[in-house]
Amino acid sequence: MNYGNVMRNSESDDSNFTFSPPASGNEHPTLCFIEDNDDNLTLYEWINSRYMPEYTFELYTDERFLNQRFNDSMPRPDLIFLDLKMPQISGGQLLTKLKEDPEWKHVPVVIFTHSTSPKDMEQCMDAGADGFFNKDISVHGIKSQLIEICEICLK
């Protein structure tokens, strides 16, 4: 697997992210969002339909992902956006589960969270996250972040 370093400058700090290539190389890459906030899932669906129709979005709560998607036989997504703070299983625990599973470990996982904790970032990167992004608070900002992350990860 090839890895590269990507520097992303933001207003708050400079961060170093490492990304893997897309898992499947599909013409229409599949993005899997695992998120406990229904409003965020609705926002991602809207961004997909309006600004990113060239991608297939899969939207899951943490519980639904574990109960329906984790053990299914469908092709794996090209990239996972994983929230960190979730009620059924933490993003860190789910990240570990994904990276230890032979069917999922090759799928790049980006932590996409409101957490700004350096400790959270370090723990996630140590557990195998391919990137750690702080969610913007605006709709436009989140849309721009998703587009940028996809351009970096799926080129």
Question: What is this structure's SSE topology?
Answer:
Blueprint: E1 4-9, E2 14-19, E3 30-34, H1 38-51, E4 56-60, H2 62-69, E5 79-82, H3 91-100, E6 109-113, H4 118-126, E7 131-134, H5 139-153
Parallel strand pairs: 3-4, 3-5, 5-6, 6-7
Antiparallel strand pairs: 1-2
Features:
155 residues; alpha/beta; Rossmann fold; two-stranded antiparallel ribbon; 23% strand; globular; disordered N terminus; Sig_transdc_resp-reg_receiver; phosphoprotein; CheY-like_superfamily; Response regulator; TCS_response_regulator
Question: What's the short story on this structure?
Answer:
Keywords: Phosphoprotein. Pfam families: Response_reg (PF00072). This protein has 155 residues and is an alpha/beta fold.
Structure report:
By secondary structure, the chain is an alpha/beta fold. It has one domain: Rossmann fold, CATH 3.40.50. It is built from five helices and seven strands. It has helices at residues 38-51, 62-69, 91-100, 118-126, 139-153; strands at residues 4-9, 14-19, 30-34, 56-60, 79-82, 109-113, 131-134. Strands 4-3-5-6-7 form a five-stranded parallel sheet, with helices on both faces. It has a two-stranded antiparallel ribbon with strand order 1-2. Strand 5 (79-82), helix 3 and strand 6 (109-113) form a beta-alpha-beta unit. The longest helix has 15 residues, at 139-153. Mean pLDDT is 86; it is low at 1-24.
Helix tally equals 5
Helical fraction? 25-40%
Helix/strand structural class: alpha/beta
Query: Low-confidence stretches at least 5 residues in length (pLDDT < 50)?
Result: 1-24
Mean pLDDT: 86
CATH class call: Alpha Beta
Determine the CATH topology. Answer: Rossmann fold
Kindly report the spatial arrangement of strands forming the biggest sheet: 4-3-5-6-7
Number of domains: 1
The main pleated sheet reads as: 5 strands, parallel
Strand content: 15-25%
What is the number of strand segments? Answer: 7
- Using only C-alpha atoms, the radius of gyration works out to 14 Å
**Secondary-structure arrangement, i.e. CATH architecture:** 3-Layer(aba) Sandwich
CATH superfamily heading: Response regulator
Gross morphology is globular
What is the end-to-end distance? 14 Å
Order of helices and strands: EEEHEHEHEHEH
